[in-house]
Amino acid sequence: MKQLTFEEATELYDPAVGIEVHVELSTDSKVFDGAPVVFGAEPNTALQPVSAGLPGALPVLNEKVLESAIRLGLALNCDIAERTMFARKHYFYPDLPKAFQTSQGENPIAENGLVEVELEDGTIFEVGIERAHMEEDAGKNTHIGGAAGRIHGADHSLVDFNRSSVPLIEIVSRPILGAKERAGEVAATYVQTLRDIAKALGISDAQMERGNVRADINVSVSKDDTLGTRTETKNLNSFRSIARAVEYEVARQASLLEAGEKVVQETRHFNEDGTTSSGRPKTGAEDYRFFPDPDLPPIEPDPAWVAELAANLVELPTAKRRRLRETWGFSDLEMRDVVNAGALDLLEATVLAGAAPESARKWWMGELSRHAKREEISLEEAAITPTQVAELQALVDEGALTDRLARQVLEGVLAGEGNPREVVKARGLEIVSDDGALNTVVEKVIAENPDVAEKIRGGKLAAIGALVGGVMRETRGQADAKRVKEIIMETLGA
Predict the structure, then answer these.
(1) What residue segments make up the domains of the chain, in order of their start?
(2) What is the pTM of this model?
(3) pLDDT single digits (tens) 194-244
(4) Which end of the chain is more exposed for a tag (fewer CB within 10 A), N or C?
């Protein structure tokens, strides 16, 4: 069978992509009991009877979960249900001891939404939202002995129930059609948009590397308006993996169809080499035997409360980017670089602390980005605050520091030596601007370079750079270069 490329596949077939995004909420306690929501705790220590699945334990809905779901639904332009309820979704895995997941069936809290997705070149793609609903997470299986942590070939498995009953909101898109060769890009950007919205609302830490945001990617291809047989690639937690999974599945399915074979409806695993592999036959909704949870009463959100949440909704990321791009005067490319680096909020906070937008961009996208890359951390994890960056730039603007000295001060701040002014004092990095001290150094450098001095006296002013450089070396870069040049000219009568 000839394996088509993604580009060849999209010339022959139209891809359809449906995406289920799971957003883990950053509540203090779990969705149906008071067990804490923690990351990295000792296995099976963050449990109470409900989240442990003990018989007879009765759930009580965490009100913060309901509020978060309504706010997210509003941000996604969804209709908020006047009456909603929980359902039991029946399946059994070792990490789900109740043998059912408490989720929502026919009555989700939010449905019929729409999200604008802005691609890198500024193209706007609209993605319809079918529903957003509340549910609980399952525990976590760790497979020992298998390849890449997979159950296949494992000697045994360990189960940690700490994640059991952690609150989730699942966002289900309508099929994304018409993206063709940009299908992978649209899918990845859509998930990034949802991540950014959840983070802006403050309802989730939205750290994909921790699994706070995970995506299941459904892909099918066809040559007409009907949807083809779909596969579902589970638990993708990076934008790059999402794009690669979409592109691989489109190419794989198109290759099968061109060879006269059929696409099997199944769940698939994503592999680090960018391929997907068969998992298990895809379960349909009817197989889950949904029915209303008898332990949780229907919920009827107060319309006045919903209206209040809508009125107090924060500015959403896309609108914020457009506003700041115009206010700051950044080009589209500059703004995209800032957004892609995860630096937008940091820049905004730095500007609010008093720095000019260009100066804020210079530090965060320059020295601090290089530092983060070296240390293999995010910009947010760097040991410096926007206020400190603004203070550092203020010292440059005041003429107290050169850019070279400012970089040394930055190193001190990152090393935990204090705020910029404290580092300047402790390291003795103030600019030497006292004329008396500068005159002494200038005279010394002129005496050591008589030939250069004669050239300047003869009108070859370009040679002054050699003397300025000498003074800067003598003062370890702490002299005011502009004033040094003026003193040299005065001394030589040039």
Answers:
(1) 6-307, 315-427, 435-492
(2) 0.79
(3) 999 999 999 999 888 888 999 999 999 999 878 999 999 998 989 999 999
(4) N
